[in-house]
Design goal:
α1 packs across α2. This protein is α+β, with helices and mostly antiparallel strands and 185 residues long. It has 5 helices and 8 strands. The chain is globular, with a radius of gyration of 15 Å.
């Protein structure tokens, strides 16, 4: 049974549950949605990420969540908190936030709505001192949302990711401290 972590006007943010791999494969694992994340994944890769997320939630009380549209009950994305685990990143273990929205729901404000709830969760119940978000300069929509959320570009945290295509290198990071978030809220 999934835990509901947060609700917004249009979304329910809940933990991963049975059947989410198939839902994610169907609506999120497309070439367009996954363009800046290394392309579509195999089912076993998504299963492994879900298992890792469930373990993180059980151990630390946070993970990535499924975004369920209240009006339709459909999966429209996922968003949440994990630990920076890229071996090339200079800040392993930092609280990393992120999101992914299905293509037919782009430009409707779902990512921002979800991430505002995730930030409240991160700085509230999770008690993170700061969060980071990773993207690339080529992913304009991603870093523009980071800026709208009050995040600050951190060039000192950039790193090269050999498994990513050249257009998505370097990986760039934005950060937000609890104090910056409280001031902006």
């Amino acid at each position: 049974m999934a835990d509901i972590i947060a609700e917004t006007d249009r979304l329910i943010l809940r933990t991963i549950e049975e059947g989410d791999v198939e839902r994610q494969m169907r609506v999120l694992n497309t070439p367009t949605v996954m363009a800046h994340l290394g392309g579509p994944k195999e089912a076993h890769e998504i299963e492994a990420k879900h298992a890792k997320g469930m373990q993180l939630y059980a151990r630390r009380g946070f993970s990535f969540l499924m975004l369920i549209e209240k009006d339709t009950g459909e999966l429209v994305g996922h968003a949440g908190i994990k630990e920076v685990d890229n071996p090339h990143a200079p800040n392993p273990g930092d609280h990393e936030i992120g999101w992914l929205i299905r293509e037919d729901r782009w430009r409707r404000g779902y990512a921002r709505e979800a991430m505002e709830a995730v930030l409240e969760w991160a700085f509230g119940r999770v008690d993170a001192p700061h969060v980071v978000a990773l993207t690339s300069e080529a992913n304009t929509a991603s870093w523009k949302l980071m800026e709208k959320l009050g995040m600050v570009r951190r060039k000192d945290l950039d790193f090269e990711e050999p498994d990513r295509p050249a257009r998505d290198n370097p990986v760039i990071q934005y950060s937000l401290t609890r104090e910056q978030w409280e001031t902006a809220s």
